[in-house]
């Protein structure tokens, strides 16, 4: 099977079946969540982020040069304003905390797709993919962002974690974007 190329992740989202149940891990300011919601038109969308610049021990977490508190702060109020009506009618649910903590509590095979863009540390993304493989239905989608090496930030951790699950036969790569910070789309086997 040939892997499809898309110019942008918004074009990639047209591959997500409409009306499914989705989950975005790592929402930040919510712009990608808006695109996912408008393009995939989910019947339910979970939006999860830690929305903090602090480690669990209370210390500020280190970031690569150029990554500012503009991105690593509490943007949950901003996101809740974007989705005010959808939150009120139950279509969108905001969750503040670590992705794996929320994913683990969802029923197995309850998601049609998940978009991973939270912690890019190998151990974190690897755990998120492992849990996602249980929560996403067979034939569903695991998508994510930053499928590229970033030597000053996360190294090859995203690529490594995704490729390991492909090599293990847990999912199949179907599509990728050709942006500077590419996104990927894999089908759960």
Task: Describe the protein in words.
The protein is of the alpha/beta class. It is built from seven helices and eight strands. It has one domain (4-188): Rossmann fold (3-Layer(aba) Sandwich), CATH 3.40.50. Strands 1-7-8-6-5-2-3-4 form an eight-stranded mixed sheet, sandwiched between helices. Strand 7 and strand 8 (183-188) form a beta hairpin. The protein is globular, with a radius of gyration of 16 Å. The two termini are 14 Å apart.
Q: Which value, in Å, is the CA radius of gyration?
A: 16 Å
**CATH classification, class level:** Alpha Beta
Please identify which CATH superfamily we are dealing with. Vaccinia Virus protein VP39
| Low-pLDDT regions | none
Query: What's the number of helices?
Result: 7
Measured by DSSP, the beta-strand proportion falls in 25-35%
- Order of strands in the sheet with most strands: 1-7-8-6-5-2-3-4
Q: What would the average pLDDT be, to the nearest integer?
A: 91
Helix-residue proportion: 25-40%
């Amino acid at each position: 099977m040939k892997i499809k190329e898309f110019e942008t992740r918004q074009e990639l989202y047209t591959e997500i079946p409409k009306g499914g149940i989705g989950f975005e891990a790592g929402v930040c300011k919510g712009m990608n969540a808006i695109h996912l919601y408008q393009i995939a038109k989910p019947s339910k969308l979970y939006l999860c982020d830690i929305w903090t610049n602090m480690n669990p021990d209370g210390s500020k977490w280190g970031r690569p040069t150029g990554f500012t508190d503009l991105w690593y702060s509490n943007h949950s109020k901003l996101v809740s304003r974007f989705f005010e009506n959808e939150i009120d009618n139950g279509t969108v649910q905001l969750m503040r905390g670590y992705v794996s903590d929320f994913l683990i509590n969802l029923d197995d095979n309850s998601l049609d797709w998940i978009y991973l863009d939270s912690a890019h540390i190998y151990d974190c993304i690897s755990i998120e993919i492992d849990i996602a493989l249980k929560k996403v239905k067979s034939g569903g989608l695991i998508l994510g962002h930053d499928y590229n090496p970033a030597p000053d930030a996360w190294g090859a951790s995203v690529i490594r974690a995704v490729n390991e699950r492909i090599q293990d036969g847990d999912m199949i790569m179907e599509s990728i974007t050709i942006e500077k910070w590419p996104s990927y789309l894999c089908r759960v086997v």
